[in-house]
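User: Show me a protein chain along with its predicted structure.
Assistant: Here is one chain, sequence first, then structure tokens.
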Amino acid sequence: MYGHDGAPPTRSAGTVITLRVLFAAAGLLSCGLLACVPLFRVAIQRGRWFDWTAAWVSLPVSIGALMVVGTVPESDSRGDVALTVALILGAGSVAYYLASDIRFHNAGRRPVGYAPLHPRTAPGPYGHPQPAPPAAPYPGFHVPQPPVPQPYPPNTPMPQPPPQRATPARIDQVRAELDELSDYLRRHGDRRDGDHEGGR
């Protein structure tokens, strides 16, 4: 459904940040009226009953608080309390949304290819998990165990491969000079033979 690896497509970092800003602005700039929007986002992401309950309860609380602010006179202290409740609800929903959204996206970025250690596995001598020995099918049955490689003691040096013998530069130079000398002798030897035969 999602290609070869079977993983759903992930959003880019810019899209994630844009969504965070929009949901946070909805809760804060509406003075708590839309405090349920970031909470519904958390409920959709996580799907827990607590998140759904908080989202549905925040909707009538914010509407009721702002209705009290609009209906009571300005000198009434109930309006101040209702406005404080609406603002705290908006700020709290935004803080809860940001914390859970960051945790949600960090959990989705777990490195692929590293399976968690099984409770029955333990790290082996080289740091790799070794499976626990299989259980015997019946009492008295011996399950053969594969040999486990033993690490070198800490102060023992690791065996080194024999060093490759490099050709010294002096030998290459001598070879080149011998080649030049043989070419020189070959050329001058041909001339001498030609002069000697011509003199006869």
